[in-house]
User: Fold this.
Amino acid sequence: MKKSVSMLLAALMLTGALAGCGSSASGTQAEDGADSGVSGAITVISREDGSGTRGAFIELTGVEEKTADGKKVDNTTADAEIANKTDVVLTSVAGNEKAIGYISLGALNDTVKAVKVDGAEATVDNVKAGAYKLSRPFNIATKGEPTGVAKDFISFILSKEGQAVVTDNKYIAVNDAAESFVSDGSSGQIAVGGSSSVSPVMEKLIEAYKSVNPNASIDLQTSDSTSGMTGAMDGTFAIGMASRELKDEEAAQLTSTAIALDGIAVIVNPANTIDELSMDQIKSIYVGDITDWGDLA
Assistant:
């Protein structure tokens, strides 16, 4: 009986020792992943070719580089998951603890977390002050001088009332001293199309404009910046939208106007405890040099 009790006690002590080792291993694993709160391979989310947000992001972070002959090369990793709209990026990052993505600052919501970039928070004030470096213009473009509803609507966008819509939707106005709008009463229907980043604020601008000029009808079509500029050039759109500067070949055929300034927020899942990344780290993630959250010590 004593022998049986002794064997039982020995077994219990061994079990406790093994459990202690297991706890130690778990603690080490948590400590190793303490920098991000997650561990394992980074899921890189990028926008599609033609996206103005992608174009601005890769240029500003250095993911896009020029070759010796001046050709621009996008070095985004082939392992990146491609999202064709801002909402898709948000959903992808919100649903994946290991994901990282980038979106328009104006589209940021509490389903994801924006990280600081080089110590600066992604805020309107920091973009205005130049402290947050990931920023770009929202442009509209027309082929030739706009007339009718297109001309009247553009006047509204750049007016005091239009720029108030811009700031009310978390974007940055380009004209703080704009004058009040007086419609010329133009009637008819036009199409406006392009960037999915510009589209949310454009939708609000259209709603506000139609309240002061009910004679106008504006059809909003959302795609990407390149499609917006192509549509403006071939006449599909009276007004094209781009969330980037126009390319040389586009600028040669179109007249562009900046309607707002926007930041690009680098976002992670709320479970990720990383609060800040450097521009170099962001580039390294997006070109595929850093592939694991554990490498961001």
